[in-house]
Each structure stands twice: as C-alpha cells, then as structure tokens.
Amino acid sequence: METILHLPVAVASYLLDIAHGLWAGAHLFMSWNNLLAVFGGVTIGCFFGALPGLSITLAVALVMPFSYGMEPLTGLTLLSAVYVGAIYGGSISAILFNTPGTPAAACTTVDGYALTQKGMAGKALQMANVSSMVGDLTSTCLVILLFPLLAKVTIYFKSPEYFALICFAITIVGSVAGRSIVLGIIAGIMGFLLSTIGMDPVEGSGRFDFGSIELLSGVGFVPLLIGLFAIPEFVRQYRRSRMATGPITLADGGATVANDRLTKREFFESLPHMLRGGVIGLALGVIPGLGATPAAFVSYEQAKRRSKKAHLFGKGSLEGIAASESGNNGVNGATLAPLLTLGIPGDVVTAIMLGALLVFNLQPGPMFFALHADLVYGLFVALLVCDIALRLVGLVFIRIGRYVTRVPTGYVFPMIFVLCVLGAYASNNHLFDIATMLIFGVVGVIFARVGLPVVPFVIAFILGPMLEKGLRRSLAASGGDISVLFSSPISLIFYALTLIAIVSIVRSRWQAVRRDRSSESTPSSTVKDALDE
Amino acid sequence: MTFVANLSRPLKGLAVGLAVLSTLTMAAAGPARADGDYPSQPIRLVVPFGPGGSTDLAARVLAKELPPIIGADIAVINVPGAGGAVGTKQVIDSAADGYTLLMAAIGSNVLRPALNPDLPYHYDDVTYLGRTQINPNVLIVRNGTYADFAEFQQALETRQGKLRYGTAGVGQVTHLGPILLYQALDIPTEAATPVHYDSDPAAMLALMQGEVDFVQANLPSVASAIQGDQVKALAVTTPERIDALPDVPTYTELGLPDVSIVGWRGVAGPKDLPQDVVDSWNRALAELTRSDAWLEATRQLGDDPAYLNGADFTEFAKQDFERYRAIGDSLGLTH
C-alpha cells in the first residue's frame, strides 16, 4: 500500500517544487527591463532572421556586448529572445523569397515558397508563426517539467549513440528528395563530399585545401546556403520579368487569395505536427552539437510519413511548414539543458550565452541548477513570455511580408541580392565568403537546370561532419573495435528506426511508380512543374 | 577643391565648416595625448575565433577597459576559421599602422604554426605587443576512479596503452598537456590514446560518460563539475596553486615542473609596427593589467592575469613554439 502511495506523493511534491520555482522565477522576471529585453530581442531576431543573408549568429553577436553589461537574467533573456525571434524570422524569407533566412528554415522553403507562388503567402506566414509558437511552447513546457532529467539524457549520448542518431537523420534525404530518389541521393553524396573540405574534424589536418588557408577553414555554411537558394531565385525572377510585359510580383500573376488567414480546420490538422515537432526539437536540442536544422528536417519527415495529405508535402503543404517550423523552434529551450547543467554549448548562440555566464561570474555545470534555481526559472518564464512576443511581433512581420508579395520583383530582388552579399561577408568578416556565395549561386543554378534537388545537398553538408565525428570518435575510444557501434540499446533503437525509414521510403516510392504507370495519361500539374519552366 | 567649388553656396559653407570643425577636433585631440598622434582613430582588434569563446571574451574585456588608457576606441572583430589561422593571417597581411591588431592566443599563434608547417605564416610573423593573461589547466578524472595523483600515475605506468583521454582537438593544449606529462614521467607517448572532441567542455562530458579516462582541460570549463563532485581534480599546471582549488597540488609540487602547460592570450600586430605604436601599447597594457576593473573581469573569466611586455612576450612565444614543435616532431604530427 505504502509503495503505491509513494509515487503520486513524489510526483506531487516534484510538481509543487516546479510551481514554486516558477513563481519565484516569475517574481524575478517581472520587471520592465526584462519585458523590454523579450520584446526587443524577439523583434531584432525576427528582423535579422527575416532578411535573407543576415544570419542568426550576426544578430546574437550584435546584441552580445549589450547583454554582457546587463543584469544576468536580463542579459540571458535578451540573448534567448533574439535566438527565438531569429529562428522564427528565418521562415519569413524562406516563404517569401525561397531563401532561408537561417539554416534552420531551409526545410520551410520547399512548401512555403510553393504557397507564395499560389498567392497564399499569408496563410504560409501565419502557419509558420503559429507553429513556431506552439512548437516552442511545447518544448519549453517539457523542459520545465523534465529539466533535471534532461542532463541525464545528454550523459547517455556517447559517440556511438550519436553516430546511430545521425544515421537515422540521414534518411530524411528520402523525404525531401523531390521527384527522384536517385537524384536526391546524388545531391546528398555531393553535399557530403563537399563537407570534407577543410580541417579534418578529428585530426585537425587539412583536407582538399590545396595550400589555401581559405579552403582550410572549410566551405562557409552561411555563404553556401545564401548562394544556393538566393541566387537561383534571383535568376529565375529575372527571367520571369523578362518574359512579362509589365512589372510582376511574387505571387503568380499578382492575384492573391482574398482570405489568407488560417482556418480552424487547417490549424487543427497541423496541430499534431506542431506538438510532435516541439518534442522532436526538445529531444535533438538536448544532444549537444545537433542544432535546429536537423530538428526541422526530422520533424518534417515524421509529419510527412503520418499525414493524410502526404502527397502535398513539397508542393505547398501547410502541414509541412507546421512540422519544420515547430521542429526548429522546439530546440530553443532544450539547448539550455546541456548549457546550464554541463556547460556545453550546442551551437553558436549557446556558445555566446556560455560566454555571458562567465562574464556574469556564473559557473555553468552540475551545480548550476542547485545554486541558481531562481535564475533558471526566471529564464524559463522569459522563454514562455518570448512565445507571446513571438506571436505579437510575428503579426507585424506577416503584415509587412504580405505587402512585399505585392511589390514588383524589380524592387525586391535587387535589394535581396545586396543583402546576400552583405550577409555573406558579415558572417565571418571575410571577403572569401562572398566568392563562396557567388560560386554556390552558380552551382544552384546548375542544380535547378539539371533537376538536382538542393535540400538533400544541404542536409548532407550539415550531417556529414557529424556522422564522421561520431564514427571516428567511437572507434578511437574503443581502440578500433567496430562492435562498439552496436553495443548499446539506444544505438540499436536508432538503427532499427533507420531500417524502418529506408523500407518505408522504398515502399512509398514503389507505390508511386505503380500509381504513375496506371494513370499515365493524367496530366500532373504540380507547382514543381510550374517552377521548372 | 573643385568638388567644393561645384557645390551650391549653402552646401559649400557647410563643407568648409565641417572641414574646419574636424581639423579643430583633431587638433584638440592631438596634444591631449603625450605619445604623438597614435592613436588618432578607432583600432580594430581581430579575434581569430568566434564570438563567445575565451579569446573573444578576453578581447572584449580589453576593448571595454583599454580606451581611456590608450586614447582610442577598440572594435572587436571576429574572423574565425581554420583554428584561428584565417584571422591571424588577415592581421599579418594588413597595414602595419597599429590600427589593425590581433588578440593573440596560444592556439592560433604558436600551436597551429608549430604543428602545421604548411601553414602560410610563422609564429614570428607578428609583433608581440604584450601578454595579458594565462589560462590554468587542470587534470581531472571521474570521481571514484583515482584517489590522488600517485594512484593515477601508477595506473598510467602499469596500464600502458589502455587509458584514453579527451582533448578539445588535435594539437590543442588539452592534447599536448598529457604528452608533456608522459615525457616528464619518462613513459612512451603511446601510454594513453587521445580521443579528439570539439571543445574542453565536450571532452569533460566524454569523461563523465566514461568514454575517456582522463582530461586535462582549462579551469573555467571544469570548475563547476569539480565543485559538484562529478569529477576529481588531481593536479594543476600553474606554478602556484589556484585560489579556486586550494587542495589540488601543482605539477611543480609533484616534482614535474615541466608539465607547466598553460593557455595564454595577449595583443599582437603585423610585423614592423612603428615604434610609437609599440611603445604606446607596451605602456597601455602595463597600466591596464594593473587596473582593478580589468583584474576583476579577467579573474571572472577563469584566467590568471600574467602581464609580459613586448620583448618578454616575444621570447616567451619563441620558447613555447620550440617546445611544441619538438613535441610535434616526436609525435610525427609535423611531417
């Protein structure tokens, strides 16, 4: 009897502790300075995220010197708010200009831009905003509930588990490959090969650098991304305008759907994807070194597999936007767990927050939560308020965004081009990155010409080095014993998931082929076709 | 002047006025400083690593506290890439006028050139203006594995080839530190296998996970875990004990003074800087490193203030370079 009672009592007291902590945190948070930090931070983040070329790192690095001079909670709140805002803001330019404002929004471009071309940019922007908020909210609530446990998850993820997880993540290529899985795999292999340029991630020696210090530092990800997406879009819009008689706008023929708010039905259809995205973001955010981009793709892939309208994915699916945007925003709160409890930054933004902690004379690590519970809960409250800010600030940006779709492209795209050059340079204060951006612009144009999909290329470029690190560290630590890769249950689960994913990709492709054969005469009028002309 | 002549009258007046005004402000600013006209404009301080890292933070503390002393604003600019090589090279190639300087660090200025002879610069391609701080390293093991250094040393000597240690990357302080230890103990460098991670905290995480057996990492990354009894500190690399870890012996006390590997940071510029630039930085850094505000901020970052003037810093960098080049040769890293 006693043992049965024990568990509910323990859970109740645990929840009571959290409620108490949140109350104290809210008390610490409620000041005009902190509220200003939230709204100001989210606005700055949205702005930088929404402008193609200006990266999230740039936004955070810009507010960093200010935050270091503030109260610890205000400073950390400002940095988090900029992060949250920028991750969301990236979706705006992904949807409007086919150019992800941040790497994490690369997944949103496919469906978002397709909707813009159909004159439904408003709907897409609304969905991105709502799902960012719901995804972030879901993951923040779970972080608050599970915070002490999350650090334990991090401890379980050694190099072999990390490797297995990345293996699984790579199967995403299958669901974003577009029409041909073979072309998707080819693009993926090219991205993987490209990622090997530069310093060997484990041994530090140069690979394919040809004695050039620029190549030794590897291909810059931000310039690569800007080049691959923005330049081909620029070229496409230029050709479109040449063929038109008068000024043209982004939406096809200038006609926009009158009612471009989200309907209740659309929201509830996508809600499961948002919640799942939040959970996926949480799970991947806890593991250092993954970041928001894989989370968006994994969430997208899972949504596509479960959706009743899977055939719309890649051709303008609101559910797709919901999945990817909730996935990448779900990471925000979760990265705080390894940062605060282990002192391990998962990405550039948390690295800057780690610096802020040191400047505030706060030592992150196992003792942090015990010593500074108020601050941690204050930060949680700040994250929750960020979600409210995200919605309010988002509404303003959506209004502007909808307007931009009606501005002639002759004004919009030259400006974007300037921003891209600026952003490529500002990412590392290095001229070589502008050249990188232009080169990948040409690569992007060639990709579009021969029908190679860009997204698998980008995913492989991100995941390649992670896969390599996981594998080589596992082998170094085990003295070259390959069985270490299969020795833990966590890894085995991920290998099983990988197999399931591969089987399901092959099966759905096979079914698609059969369907195509049986209905060969039906004209397929997809957005992709409209894009390619 | 033709440009001014073509302007309309009110604009011409404005242009002349501005010209006079700027001359006046420059004249007013000039004599206020004792050391000639340097610096007469803001100084770019290039950090060859990303924002938020320890070198970046050191540079930002400097940029905040130094302007009243040197008499010009300092703008911190991050140029990361290739382990600090890109930013360092950018400064080396810039004009030697004292307005583009480098936040020098052990990794970018000495370790990279010492272990990568292919790198297009040498450790002495810069003018060292002054070292500001050092960064103590701590040898840590999982709690409950080894009680003290003697026990650890015994394990290292008897279980040769079995122990693994985590580093923040090949050729980093965390990689070479343990090698210095084997050399001091006179055991082969294959005594333990390095596993390379991305950063000091990541190496510590691997230690907590049990993927590696020991790590010798910088103090701020591991201090909290030591306080929280998650890992145990066995030795520190500074000549004297650290305030934060009063019970942990130094390698010097353990009879191994050669394991005195520390990270360091300072300011450097392109080669052949004008003498007045060198002089004013020597003076400014000496004053800065005595100021309370700087001392406090630097200690908060986990660094030890350790000023060396330009000449001593140059000699120090040379010794460090030769020491690590020798290690690199013995490991076959420099082939």
TrEMBL record, chain A:
<feature type="transmembrane region" description="Helical">
    <location>
        <begin position="7"/>
        <end position="30"/>
    </location>
</feature>
<feature type="transmembrane region" description="Helical">
    <location>
        <begin position="342"/>
        <end position="363"/>
    </location>
</feature>
<feature type="transmembrane region" description="Helical">
    <location>
        <begin position="76"/>
        <end position="97"/>
    </location>
</feature>
<feature type="transmembrane region" description="Helical">
    <location>
        <begin position="438"/>
        <end position="464"/>
    </location>
</feature>
<feature type="transmembrane region" description="Helical">
    <location>
        <begin position="484"/>
        <end position="506"/>
    </location>
</feature>
<feature type="transmembrane region" description="Helical">
    <location>
        <begin position="274"/>
        <end position="297"/>
    </location>
</feature>
<feature type="transmembrane region" description="Helical">
    <location>
        <begin position="375"/>
        <end position="398"/>
    </location>
</feature>
<dbReference type="InterPro" id="IPR002823">
    <property type="entry name" value="DUF112_TM"/>
</dbReference>
<keyword id="KW-1133">Transmembrane helix</keyword>
<dbReference type="Pfam" id="PF01970">
    <property type="entry name" value="TctA"/>
</dbReference>
<feature type="transmembrane region" description="Helical">
    <location>
        <begin position="36"/>
        <end position="64"/>
    </location>
</feature>
<protein>
    <submittedName>
        <fullName>Tripartite tricarboxylate transporter permease</fullName>
    </submittedName>
</protein>
<keyword id="KW-0472">Membrane</keyword>
<feature type="transmembrane region" description="Helical">
    <location>
        <begin position="162"/>
        <end position="195"/>
    </location>
</feature>
<feature type="transmembrane region" description="Helical">
    <location>
        <begin position="215"/>
        <end position="235"/>
    </location>
</feature>
<keyword id="KW-0812">Transmembrane</keyword>
<feature type="transmembrane region" description="Helical">
    <location>
        <begin position="410"/>
        <end position="426"/>
    </location>
</feature>
<feature type="domain" description="DUF112">
    <location>
        <begin position="35"/>
        <end position="459"/>
    </location>
</feature>
<feature type="transmembrane region" description="Helical">
    <location>
        <begin position="130"/>
        <end position="150"/>
    </location>
</feature>
TrEMBL record, chain B:
<feature type="signal peptide">
    <location>
        <begin position="1"/>
        <end position="34"/>
    </location>
</feature>
<dbReference type="InterPro" id="IPR005064">
    <property type="entry name" value="BUG"/>
</dbReference>
<dbReference type="InterPro" id="IPR042100">
    <property type="entry name" value="Bug_dom1"/>
</dbReference>
<keyword id="KW-0732">Signal</keyword>
<protein>
    <submittedName>
        <fullName>Tripartite tricarboxylate transporter substrate binding protein</fullName>
    </submittedName>
</protein>
<dbReference type="Pfam" id="PF03401">
    <property type="entry name" value="TctC"/>
</dbReference>
<comment type="similarity">
    <text>Belongs to the UPF0065 (bug) family.</text>
</comment>
